[in-house]
Amino acid sequence: MPKRRHLSRTVLAAVTAAVLGAAGCDAVGGDSPAPSGTDARSARPSPKPTPTWDRSPASVAAVGDSITRGFDACSVLSDCPEVSWATGSSPQVDSLAVRLLGKTKAARQSWNYAVTGARMADVPGQMAQAATRRPELVAVMAGANDACRASTDAMTPVADFRAQFEDAMSTLRESLPKTQVFVASVPNLMRLWEQGRTNPLGKQVWKLGICPSMLSDPDSLTTQSNQRRETVQGRVEAYNKVLKEVCRKDRRCRFDDGAVYDFRFGTEQLSQWDWFHPSVDGQARLAEIAYRTVTN
After folding, report:
1. Which GO MF terms are attached to this record (predicted)?
2. Which runs of consecutive H residues, i.e. helices, occur in 142-199?
3. d(CA 143, CA 186)
4. CA 185 to CA 220: how far, in whole Å?
5. d(CA 69, CA 72)
6. Between the CA atoms of 83, 84, 89 and 91, what dihedral angle is there, to the nearest 10 degrees?
7. In CATH, which of 3.40.50.300, 3.40.225.10, 3.40.50.1110, 1.20.1250.20 is domain 60-295?
């Protein structure tokens, strides 16, 4: 039966080849020639995609309000940008820019466009200024002044806050589609009131107009005063939800997931002049949070 045995071997060889092909086995081995041309290109492993987020940007710009300007950290009622958590040069703070770039490069490749008293409505303009430097990372901390108004009725509506932040992101993206953005959450203003209300000097400075919606009548525990503070706190939480949602829509944006809001500022982290803004130590803690978010 020679023909039948030959047929059986032919069928077995065909089945074996089919199984090997289905299993994805490499049929080239020993002294067999390697694939070439189109076959060689298809045989090479696909290159790994470039990560969207770069943990070591080469330049940093900052936008926002008095916290990013280091207000009341060095002297009463004045900016102190050298201790800014974002771009400061102080070794006591070890700012985000210094941690990412090193001290020498940070002096040349970081810029601070934050303005004391700024609200979210001011951030699109700051973003436009920052974009002229073409930074690889923009650090954003804004929103406290939107809640810190003369009254709760004067606080920025949540819908307006959202539109303003979206405008800020769009402003950046129009000229710098690949620049990364770090967004810090709005601090817990209730926590700051709880810490500062025990200090007589701080309460005297609060009377000058620092966050009156939260800090006016600091010793009052009436139902009306408590409700006012809860209203402010609720608005801060709503702002943070907006920051998270808008940032999530941009693949090159990272929100701190509420790390600044959750940080338990103590007396060492608060300004000795107003017991509200971060001290030098507080600025250092903010820098740690930002660096951790950017590099993880």
Report:
1. phospholipase activity
2. 144-147, 158-175, 189-196
3. 6
4. 28
5. 9
6. 50
7. 3.40.50.1110
Q: How many helices (H) and strands (E) does the chain have?
A: 13, 5
- The tens digit of pLDDT for each residue in 183-241 reads 999 999 999 999 999 889 889 889 988 999 999 999 999 999 999 999 999 999 999 99
Question: Is residue 126 classed exposed, middle or buried when 0-12, 13-18 and 19+ CB atoms within 10 A define those classes?
Answer: buried
- Rounded CA gap, 187 and 42, in Å? 53
Query: 118-174 pLDDT, tens per residue?
Result: 999 999 999 999 999 999 999 999 999 999 999 999 999 999 999 999 999 999 999
Q: Is the per-residue pLDDT at 265 higher than 60? A: yes
Angle at alpha carbon of residue 234, lines to 228 and 236, rounded to 5°: 110
Q: Residues near 130 by Cβ (< 8 Å), separated by ≥ 6?
A: 61, 62, 63, 111, 113, 138, 172
